[in-house]
Amino acid sequence: MSKATRFSKSFTVDRSILDYLQRTRASRSRSERLNELLRRAIVDEQYDLLEREAAEFFAGVGKTERAESRAFAAASRRSITRAGD
């Protein structure tokens, strides 16, 4: 766990979150446990963003592009079979 630079901030947190932190902190402080959970949440959010970006990128391949790819593949096969004769 990184302890290089720490800042003291004040946030309002629900009682249920504080209770969860207290139950799951083991030998760590509640602040350390909260930082661990926040880091996990940030990574999860980044993965979700990457998934959405990938879905948008691949959704951009439409019927026209697929038809062109199939035509190119068919032409390549015909060219290869002619060259082998």
Plain-language structure description:
With 85 residues, this protein is mostly helical. It has one domain (15-84). Helix content is 73%, strand content 0%. It has three helices and no strands. The chain has helices at 15-24, 30-59, 63-84.
Binned strand content: under 5%
Shape: rod-shaped
Biggest sheet overview: none
Please identify the structural class as seen in this structure.
mainly alpha
Please bin the fraction of helical residues: over 70%
Radius of gyration: 27 Å
Number of helices: 3
N- and C-termini, Cα separation? 66 Å
User: Can you count the beta strands?
Assistant: 0
What order do the helices and strands follow?
A: HHH
Look at the structure and give the mean pLDDT: 87
Could you list the spans in which at least 5 consecutive residues all have pLDDT below 50?
none
Give the helices and strands, then pairings.
Layout: H1 15-24, H2 30-59, H3 63-84
Essential attributes:
85 residues; mainly alpha; 3 helices; rod-shaped
Give a short summary of the structure.
The chain has 85 residues and is mainly alpha-helical. It is 73% helix and 0% strand.
